Amino acid sequence: MSNSHRMTVREMARLAGVSVATVSRVFNGTGQVSEEMRQRVLESIKAHGYQPDHRGRALAARRHNAIGLVFPGLAGPYFGELIQGFELEVVQSQAAVHILCTHMRSDSDEQVIEMARRVDGLAVLGGTVSDDAVLRLAGALPVVVLAGKGPGAVPSIRAENHDAMRALTTHLLETHGLRDLIFVGSPDGSPDISERWDGFRAAHRDTGRAQRRRPVRAALRQEDGVQVATQLLKRGPLPQAIVCANDETALGVLVGLLGAGVRVPEDVVITGFDDVQMAGLVAPALTTVRQPIRELAAETARQLLRASTDPPQSRLLPTELVIRRSCGCAGARNTTGDPARRDP
């Protein structure tokens, strides 16, 4: 058959008059199949020259045809981007996505373990549930930690954080000659934020600059950034630069300070991390680090979808420093030197 390589497992099952799972059991030699059924499938396979691809074999191996996604919450553009990247991959593979939000739940571990009984694989945002729960889950089904490090041998898909934040902070210290920088974020609340805090400190060590010992602890929402701006205005005077752990916080700080008549970047520099769409649309546009948010989630989904034939493996995706007006640079550019949009 000239185009047999394009045949799907569902087509093969239809031609043989059996279920998709039966085709998979016969081809892989697993599970119980009657001799009559096995011969029927083998004859059909031989007649049509069927060879399963990874997606077809994974589909046949699923018990629930669903993949789970565990987040602390769904608010904000960052989580929206992650969900879109994850969902697109899963839906294209003819499976369903089950989402569990653990925000404000004291029984998060138990809820995730219960969810695992209804899915064939599980993506858990780093730091959302305990390491013990992740390890327990990994003993029962494929688990990938998204945007964080997995405990033990549990694989993770994450973006580079430390070196990117070190590069951003070094840009402020050396290119702009700033001395008084503060970091806004809670390193103990997220593996990603912890790595960014470490990168912030590393830049100070590399350049021989003194730093404020403690970060300004804040959650990652825009309203939290507005609260940080209010606190900083009350304390006064403002630092020379506010280095935020993510864009949403940075945008909140920006809105709060601009609303109080503070000029950015003339009076204070503000930077973020993520490069959400709004970061390039505000005035001044936000200097930040671009991470491949959708690709993080898409790669996590792909690894879980093919887990029955190809066990998930850890991956570290690259990030990119994006220089815009909020740090005081006259024009916008990125670290490759490619031209970028100039702020109006």
TrEMBL record:
The leader peptide range reads none
Instruction: List, alphabetically, the PROSITE patterns matched.
Output: HTH_CROC1 (PS50943), HTH_LACI_2 (PS50932)
Q: Name one GO molecular function term.
A: DNA-binding transcription factor activity
Query: Start and end of every HTH lacI-type domain?
Result: 7-61
Give the keywords, sorted: DNA-binding, Transcription, Transcription regulation
Q: Which InterPro entries match?
A: Cro/C1-type_HTH, HTH_LacI, LacI/GalR-like_sensor, Lambda_DNA-bd_dom_sf, Peripla_BP_I
Q: Which Pfam families match?
A: LacI, Peripla_BP_3
Q: Where do the HTH cro/C1-type domain residues begin and end?
A: 3-37
User: What protein name is recorded for this chain?
Assistant: LacI family transcriptional regulator
